[in-house]
Amino acid sequence: MSRTIGSNGPKTMEAIYAAGLGLIYRHGYAAMSLRQLASEVGIQPGSLYNHIRTKQDLLFSLLQTHMETLLHALNEALEPHTTPEEQLRAFVAFHVNYHITRRAEVFICYSELRSLEPANYEIIVSLRRAYERRLMMILAGGNAEGAVTVPDIPATAYALLAMLTGVCTWYKPGGRLSPEDLVALYTELTVRAAKPLPSLHTQT
Amino acid sequence: MSRTIGSNGPKTMEAIYAAGLGLIYRHGYAAMSLRQLASEVGIQPGSLYNHIRTKQDLLFSLLQTHMETLLHALNEALEPHTTPEEQLRAFVAFHVNYHITRRAEVFICYSELRSLEPANYEIIVSLRRAYERRLMMILAGGNAEGAVTVPDIPATAYALLAMLTGVCTWYKPGGRLSPEDLVALYTELTVRAAKPLPSLHTQT
Amino acid sequence: MSRTIGSNGPKTMEAIYAAGLGLIYRHGYAAMSLRQLASEVGIQPGSLYNHIRTKQDLLFSLLQTHMETLLHALNEALEPHTTPEEQLRAFVAFHVNYHITRRAEVFICYSELRSLEPANYEIIVSLRRAYERRLMMILAGGNAEGAVTVPDIPATAYALLAMLTGVCTWYKPGGRLSPEDLVALYTELTVRAAKPLPSLHTQT
Amino acid sequence: MSRTIGSNGPKTMEAIYAAGLGLIYRHGYAAMSLRQLASEVGIQPGSLYNHIRTKQDLLFSLLQTHMETLLHALNEALEPHTTPEEQLRAFVAFHVNYHITRRAEVFICYSELRSLEPANYEIIVSLRRAYERRLMMILAGGNAEGAVTVPDIPATAYALLAMLTGVCTWYKPGGRLSPEDLVALYTELTVRAAKPLPSLHTQT
DNA sequence: GATGAATGAGCATTCATTCAT
DNA sequence: AATGAATGAATGCTCATTCAT
Question: Residue D62 pLDDT > 60, yes or no?
Answer without folding.
Answer: yes
